Here is the input.
Amino acid sequence: MEKEKVQEHIERGLSRARQDDWSGAAEAFRRAVNLDTQSVEARFRLGWALWKRAEAQKPNLADLGLGYLALVTGFDSFARERSRKFVAYKRLLQESCHWLREAIARDPRHARSHYFLAQAMRELGYKAEATQIAKRAAELEPGNVRYATLVQTYAESRPLSYEQTSGPENGARLTWDDLVLDARTKRELRQMQLMLEKPDLARELGVEPPTGILLKGAPGTGKTTIARVLASEAKCRFFSISPADINQMYVGESEKRVRELFVRARESAPSIIFIDEIDALLPMRQGGVAIHSDKVVNQFLQEMDGMTPNQRVLIVGATNRPDMLDPAVRRGGRLSREITIPMPDREARRQLLALFTRGVKLAPDVDLDAMADETPDYSGADLKAVVNEAGLQALIRLADSADPETPRMLTAADFAEALANIEPGEQ
Here is the structure.
């Protein structure tokens, strides 16, 4: 009789679900759970209905923008109302995860529970865990297209290079020969490499390794590439993050991500934490409406202060606006070493063009010296884009050519078209 009542409540919940009444559906499934403490189906359906209800009430960017505007303009009651909407959404997702995990605990091979748990976890910001759970669902039902599609979607949308090991397994190994820098800058960078690579020698010489360095320079000057080369040459684990990887809408989530990042970096030492656009992640603390970013800055400062020289973890920040960075981040013991990466001069541009075309067939009429003279305001990224654009121009030219014997190489005309299309500062 009890099982009949459980099934009756499940059927009632499914009927409400077909009417998009997710509150009513969740209530019916909750009654089924209360009647049968071991029912996998009841727990799955309750978790599923709560996830659907959360999706129906999901705050959008307009809610976030209006809430922030209300906070700035002093409409505290409206701001609190918007904040409650985000809190309610998060609670529904957390409860959904609870019941879906309960279903999995009773039946580890319940693929549907894995499928919806992955989506709820993803919305809560646990991207890596969500991807693993989605993969498990696909493994349990390999013929299910929805599950396979979810895994593919999560794999494609994962942040590139959040964690990457430098080495041949990730493509050609980067070396200092892949950079065009003045001797002084390259020497400073090699000092950082040796402190990570030979900590015992550094200690013997009485050298205290810096906690981090700040790479300053205009966009396109190669700051990210420099950090990757440093990690590759020092044989370090490379953690690359951006403000989007850290900043989350929920209270406390951003600081949690900062803590997790440093824990992983210490466990993987020697390692480099590379922070692109660090001025956007750690701006000057203002208080008031900027309290969220202030907490992130405080958490980073706390983690950096907790680092010791023998941990072999180096923080590398990159910015083209160092004046926007919080002053406390730049003081001694944190990002105390600052290295300026200048725009390439004429000789550097000539070397960069030679570097970018070393695997390219060039026609005899291509003059890299003349091209270096014609590109005074171009950064390294701009010059790389010019070479790529010239290749695209050659591709079109060769595809449209009626003569199959036309030499397959880049000509001066291809580079002229590329320079006309790529303006300095576009990359």
Q: What stands out?
A: Confidence is low (pLDDT under 50) at residues 61-76, 158-171. The first strand starts at residue 164 and ends at 165. The two ends are 70 Å apart (CA to CA). The chain has three domains: 2-157, 164-340, 346-421.
